Amino acid sequence: MSTAEGTFDIDRWDDETYLDADGIKLGHVSVAKTFRGGLSGVSTARLLTAGGPVPTSAAYVAIERFVGTVDGVEGSFVLQHSAVMAGGSGDMSVRVVPDSGTGKLAGISGTLRIDKAADGTHSYRLEYEV
């Protein structure tokens, strides 16, 4: 297993609530990111979000397509996100969608970890095989 690490910026975050009833909000978000480090490139994602009356509890699912290089190898792949937060602590899973790799990244598999620092900086760690 190889590891690629670095940071990313969120360049666009367009969210819209499509249901707001009984204290529950459901939404969808369009996101664009720029990656630096082991991943060098851009991505676009679509998220579905859910939140309730407790601000520290929420969930989202997403599909994200990355285009660029992984440790200098060019291509693209798709990530599938699933996350739940309860009372401020959460569980997130981000996996490479099987057989979604293109170019020299065809056959890529792995998992991605995302961390957000207190200053708002986003970092990632991709554990992968091609």
Describe the protein:
- The protein has strands at 2-21, 24-37, 39-51, 58-70, 73-86, 89-96, 102-103, 109-116, 122-129.
- A hairpin with a 6-residue loop joins strand 3 and strand 4.
- By secondary structure, it is mainly β.
- It contains no helices and nine strands.
- The model has no long low-confidence stretch (mean pLDDT 96).
- Strands 1, 2, 3, 4, 5, 6, 7, 8 and 9 form a nine-stranded antiparallel beta sheet that branches.
Number of helical regions: 0
- Low-pLDDT regions: none
Instruction: State the helicity in percent bands.
Output: under 10%
Computed over alpha carbons, the radius of gyration is 15 Å
Shape: elongated
The amount of beta strand, in percent, is over 45%
Average residue pLDDT = 96
SSE series: EEEEEEEEE
Largest sheet: 9 strands, antiparallel
- Give the class from helix and strand content and strand pairing: mainly beta
Q: Distance N terminus to C terminus?
A: 9 Å
Q: What's the total count of β strands?
A: 9
